[in-house]
């Protein structure tokens, strides 16, 4: 069966739309995979060849509610689970260890949720790059003042989706092949100027130490003494939107406050000696992409490159900082940070927060389903919703179901603003600490708003 390029691109576009996602699947005949696509067959033939066709499944969007009641209405829903949490009445208790073990959560997740399908993962890569190319072609064809802002928003969102797939490669949830993960991860992350191995390793450190004031890696809270050493302008820019949403490139170069090292240097404190070659390769790939952009700028001029690539890259950075911040901040009841013996992998992971991003859930590969991802990063993104639903009865009140979003997640804006206004630092002492507010900084912001 022959599939025309137009129909194929149309299929790819439809799969990015949640309205089509649940009922839509695309079948491609093996005859479609001619010599131009032989590379796909070489990657992992033994997992794919089933009769006469290949099925590309692009489902995995957020399919309504997870089936868990509002967090204050769970009591009585799972009587057998209430016995497990006797003494805490299903409430999140930061002062004591969770009343369940991580093995119980793992056992509740269906076995097929752990299975990685490289062909399905590659279909998402193909989909995203086709959308990116189509958006570029469309805006160059229209070339109007109306089209460009829409393009920047859409393309920046697609760059973020590409980052998420590279993130999956870094976790090994893309496939069981380390080589395939590395090759695809380098292609994806280098395209958006992210050093693949450098970020992969620092992100691994974040997962292994999340919620630990002393060892966590990203969005680590300032201690009170560190905060007081900052001058007023630094405090202002650190907590004044939109500046925190542009922090990612700074983090790649200089790391988080109070920590030293660069994601580009093989001799950074972030990395072990045996990882230096990997860092060198990733930095080289990053440099090749940067050099390509500079070369194109000399051919067509810097302004077209900035419009076509640079502004979407800034939108991507804002998406990344927004999402990663809101997964670890902004809950109505402030969540704890731990030190010393009070910290554990499970306790740290349970302080993460799921978020609903409306129509963007499917586009950026359900990255908002974050709690189970933090506990079990090896689960592919297309199984996270089902895994979360299965684990919710065990987690009880330790799982905070996200507030439902409209098509556009405007509800997250006041959450972000409130957190930036209140979550300034944690105490220098104590093994269980919470964010505290600098009243002077908050009063200055209120005065500026009034003016």
UniProtKB/TrEMBL annotation:
<dbReference type="GO" id="GO:0016717">
    <property type="term" value="F:oxidoreductase activity, acting on paired donors, with oxidation of a pair of donors resulting in the reduction of molecular oxygen to two molecules of water"/>
</dbReference>
<dbReference type="InterPro" id="IPR005804">
    <property type="entry name" value="FA_desaturase_dom"/>
</dbReference>
<dbReference type="Pfam" id="PF00487">
    <property type="entry name" value="FA_desaturase"/>
</dbReference>
<feature type="domain" description="Fatty acid desaturase">
    <location>
        <begin position="144"/>
        <end position="399"/>
    </location>
</feature>
<comment type="pathway">
    <text>Lipid metabolism.</text>
</comment>
<keyword id="KW-0732">Signal</keyword>
<protein>
    <recommendedName>
        <fullName>Omega-3 fatty acid desaturase</fullName>
    </recommendedName>
</protein>
<feature type="transmembrane region" description="Helical">
    <location>
        <begin position="178"/>
        <end position="199"/>
    </location>
</feature>
<comment type="similarity">
    <text>Belongs to the fatty acid desaturase type 1 family.</text>
</comment>
<feature type="domain" description="Fatty acid desaturase N-terminal">
    <location>
        <begin position="66"/>
        <end position="137"/>
    </location>
</feature>
<keyword id="KW-0560">Oxidoreductase</keyword>
<dbReference type="InterPro" id="IPR021863">
    <property type="entry name" value="FAS_N"/>
</dbReference>
<dbReference type="InterPro" id="IPR012171">
    <property type="entry name" value="Fatty_acid_desaturase"/>
</dbReference>
<dbReference type="GO" id="GO:0016020">
    <property type="term" value="C:membrane"/>
</dbReference>
<dbReference type="Pfam" id="PF11960">
    <property type="entry name" value="DUF3474"/>
</dbReference>
<feature type="transmembrane region" description="Helical">
    <location>
        <begin position="275"/>
        <end position="296"/>
    </location>
</feature>
<keyword id="KW-0472">Membrane</keyword>
<dbReference type="GO" id="GO:0006629">
    <property type="term" value="P:lipid metabolic process"/>
</dbReference>
<feature type="transmembrane region" description="Helical">
    <location>
        <begin position="236"/>
        <end position="254"/>
    </location>
</feature>
<feature type="signal peptide">
    <location>
        <begin position="1"/>
        <end position="19"/>
    </location>
</feature>
<keyword id="KW-1133">Transmembrane helix</keyword>
<feature type="transmembrane region" description="Helical">
    <location>
        <begin position="308"/>
        <end position="326"/>
    </location>
</feature>
<keyword id="KW-0812">Transmembrane</keyword>
<feature type="transmembrane region" description="Helical">
    <location>
        <begin position="124"/>
        <end position="142"/>
    </location>
</feature>
């Amino acid at each position: 069966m022959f599939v025309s390029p137009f129909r194929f691109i149309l299929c790819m576009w439809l799969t990015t739309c949640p309205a089509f996602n649940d009922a839509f699947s695309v079948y491609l005949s093996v005859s479609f995979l001619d010599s131009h696509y032989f590379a796909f067959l070489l990657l992992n033939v033994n997992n794919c060849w089933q009769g006469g066709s290949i099925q590309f499944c692009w489902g995995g969007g957020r399919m309504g509610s997870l089936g868990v009641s509002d967090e204050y209405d769970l009591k009585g829903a799972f009587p057998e689970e209430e016995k497990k949490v006797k003494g805490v009445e299903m409430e999140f208790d930061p002062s004591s260890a969770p009343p369940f073990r991580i093995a119980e959560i793992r056992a509740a997740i269906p076995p097929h949720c752990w299975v990685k399908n490289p062909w399905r993962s590659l279909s998402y890569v193909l989909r995203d790059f086709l959308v990116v190319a189509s958006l570029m072609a469309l805006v160059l064809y229209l070339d109007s003042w109306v089209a460009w802002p829409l393009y920047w928003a859409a393309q920046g969102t697609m760059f973020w989706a590409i980052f998420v797939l590279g993130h999956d490669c870094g976790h090994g949830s893309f496939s069981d092949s380390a080589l395939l993960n590395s090759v695809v991860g380098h292609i994806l992350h280098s395209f958006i100027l992210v050093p693949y191995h450098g970020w992969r390793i620092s992100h691994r450190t974040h997962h292994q130490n999340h919620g630990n004031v002393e060892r966590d890696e990203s969005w680590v809270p300032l201690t009170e003494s560190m905060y007081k050493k900052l001058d007023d302008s630094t405090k202002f820019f650190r907590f004044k939107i939109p500046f925190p949403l542009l922090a990612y490139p700074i983090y790649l170069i200089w790391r988080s406050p109070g920590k030293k090292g660069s994601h580009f240097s093989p001799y950074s404190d972030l990395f072990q000696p045996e990882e230096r070659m990997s860092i060198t390769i990733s930095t080289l790939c990053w440099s090749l992409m940067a050099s390509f952009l500079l070369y194109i700028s000399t051919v067509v001029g810097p302004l077209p490159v900035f419009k076509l690539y640079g502004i979407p890259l800034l939108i991507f950075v804002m998406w990344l900082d927004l999402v990663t911040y809101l997964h670890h901040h902004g809950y109505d009841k402030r969540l704890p940070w731990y030190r010393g013996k009070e910290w554990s992998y499970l306790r740290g992971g349970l302080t993460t927060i799921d978020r609903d991003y409306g129509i963007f859930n499917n586009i950026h590969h359900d990255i908002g389903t974050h709690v189970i991802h933090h506990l079990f990063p090896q689960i592919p993104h297309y199984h996270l919703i089902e895994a979360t639903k299965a684990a919710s009865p065990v987690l009880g009140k330790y799982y905070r179901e996200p507030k439902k979003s409209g098509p556009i997640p405007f509800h997250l804006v006041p959450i972000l603003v409130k957190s930036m206004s209140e979550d300034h630092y944690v105490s220098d002492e104590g093994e269980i600490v919470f964010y505290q507010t600098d009243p002077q900084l908050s009063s200055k912001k209120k005065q500026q708003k009034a003016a």
